[in-house]
Design brief:
- By secondary structure, this protein is of the alpha/beta class.
- The chain has one domain: NAD(P)-binding Rossmann-like Domain (Rossmann fold, 3-Layer(aba) Sandwich).
- It is built from 14 helices and eleven strands.
- Helix 4 links the parallel strand 2 and strand 3.
- It is globular and about 55 Å long.
Length: 365
Amino acid sequence: MDLRRRALAHLVMRLPDPAFWRGKRVLLTGHTGFKGGWAAIWLTRMGAEVTGLALAPDQTPSLFELADVENLVDSHIADLREPAAVEAVLGGRNFDLVLHMAAQPIVRTSVEDPVGTFAANVMGTAHLLQALRGRTGLKAMLVVTSDKVYANDEAGRPFAEADPLGGKDPYSASKAAAEIVTASFARSFFEKEGVAVGTARGGNVIGGGDFSRDRLVADIVRAARAGEAVVLRHPEATRPWQHVLDCLAAYFVLLERLASDPATPRAVNFGPRPGGPQVTVGELASLAVEALGAKPWVHRPDPASLEAKALAVDTSLARRALGFESRLDGPAAVSLTMDWYRRQGVGESARALCEEQIGLYESDR
């Protein structure tokens, strides 16, 4: 606990405002996923009235089920790739705010199923935006994309919001395409209706409750619980690691500003604090296995992998325009994450653990 509090103590940065969210009608897509589950818990904690729209969870176990997210929100299981299904869920409902997080989020899955990835991440976004046109009372929408939307030359420099979009793997390309789709809908339709539409380009997120396939922390936890060593493909790769609470706080703060200030940037990077050390996959894995008392990781190269070796984003716009900066450094984020898994693994309530960690994050205002 002391480590986590020290990581938070010296920062006086903007946090989500519960008074803003109280009573707001929020459409949250992807509420059955890892980040979506945390978002549903935090939004309802702040008093928002949340409608969830997503596929059924594809993880076993899942945070959605462990934390009983279904009974926190007005939950609807539907496929964004099917416009009729989206229309059926939204019906005559009106919303104040929309947070679109539903996606196919895994790079290796995108290589196995590129068409399905484009259908979910590009056309799913287009179907949602089309269904939301002309909604009474809608103030702002935020579409979550990725730090991987940039044309990555592997130079290792942090990418800024004005850098060219690209993507050499289907996941990255689909998220870059979702940026273009979102901007086109915003300019053609929503801005004329007085609805602010933005995108959030977040870094690699870690936190308790992620049981996804091919995710580093989830793989480490599965291996530790099975008494095995986790296998790393690229221990030398660097990523802009960010705790799920920092990531969600950034989304909430950006949505608050989009709803209230027309000058708010329409695309913003979020990730670790500028100037902090670059943390490799191997370094993060070492911290994690030590915290869990698990076997050391092993390296098994994958020469066919399309994953970028170096990835960093410039988050100075978030600090300058929003007054937001991540509060948890790498060791603190890993400590908080592994504490969640340790305690959940011995029977503590997943919902209670999420609530406790959200409360800790909020406590230093």
